[in-house]
Amino acid sequence: MQLRCRVVVLGYLAVLVFPVWCRGEIPSSAERVRRSFRFRYAGAIDGVSPGELARVWLPLPTGSPQQRIRLAKLELPGPHRFTRERKYGNPLIYFEATGNQDGRIPFDIEYECVRFERSEARTESASPCERALFLRPTRLIPLDGSLLAGWAPRRHPRRRTITARDLYDAVDLHMKYSKPPGKPWGRGDVKWACDSGYGNCTDFHSLFLAACRFHGIPARFEIGFPLPADRTSGEVAGYHCWASFEYRGQWIPVDISEADKHPERRDYFFGRLDPNRIRFTIGRDLELEPPNATGPVNYLIYPHVEIGGCVHRRLVKRFSFEEIGKGEG
């Protein structure tokens, strides 16, 4: 029987005791801990025959202790409705539309967001039903100890457990951030990541999730978009993802692919996230509402489109941001 639990989110946590290994480095007073910006999620479904009907599911970002969201603009080519993904409770927009004379179905959505640094003082609580849900395997994240052999740490004879920090360091040591053309990186396939030793953020964090869950540590996948730290506006080429693990009833964030690209911040990205991002959805093998024809979705950040009961992947992306405040803490 599938667990169906509403995500319980606490507001700002004034006091949260962390062990030393969770704290990471303390940001300097000059480091940004808040950003205010507009995020535009726009583009078009391409390659649709004029008059051909498409079913479209769009992810929606939600508010949390780390981000405040306001929907500022919503332009879609027909009636729509707000729904909620059934497995993790992610909010969605669903609509049906036909291709225009150019063979496209446009969409244009704008959000206003205030994003805070995620730290021990600003995180989310983990309910008991969430713990159970995020210990389960998914199609590409199996609970198979043989996949961890050769790179994941083993229990030390003088220690009773493997910690999340042990697994964080092991993934960072095993994986290299690389996206060579023609290779199947980016699916979050744990077996492939174990064998290849490289990939993008999806591959890094899928490996971390598999290792955590195998050792009984609930861990979840989170995905959104990155914002350049050194610019106040511009295009956003693609998504970024990270993970979090449960510790003493709280979701503790990690960003291992960023730690791999910036080794000097390895300690920081264990337990903290900078505010240069916006989160859209959590989880893998998402169950859309209304139900789609092709089954659970690996992860959801770009529009999921189906035409004639088949997935349609041609997409024109126009994602961008514009800062609307200094955002200094």
The secondary-structure class comes to alpha+beta
Number of strands: 17
The helix tally amounts to: 6
Give the tally of structural domains. Answer: 1
Low-pLDDT windows of residues? 1-30
The whole-angstrom Rg is 20 Å
Strand order of the largest sheet: 3-6-1-17-11
Q: What is the typical, i.e. mean, pLDDT?
A: 89
Sheet of most strands: 5 strands, antiparallel
Q: What portion of residues is helical?
A: 10-25%
Give the H and E element order.
Answer: HEEEEEEEHHEHEHEEEEHEEEE
Assembly of the depicted chains = single chain
Fraction of residues in β-strands = 25-35%
Distance between the termini: 45 Å
Q: Can you tell me the overall shape?
A: globular
Describe the protein.
- This protein is an alpha+beta fold.
- The protein has one domain (33-323).
- Helices cover 15% and strands 32% of the residues.
- Strands 3-6-1-17-11 form a five-stranded antiparallel beta sheet, with no helix packed on it. A five-stranded antiparallel beta sheet has the order 4-5-2-15-16, with no helix packed on it.
- α3 packs antiparallel against α5.
- The longest helix is centred in the middle third of the chain and has 14 residues, at 201-214.
- The radius of gyration is 20 Å and the shape is globular.
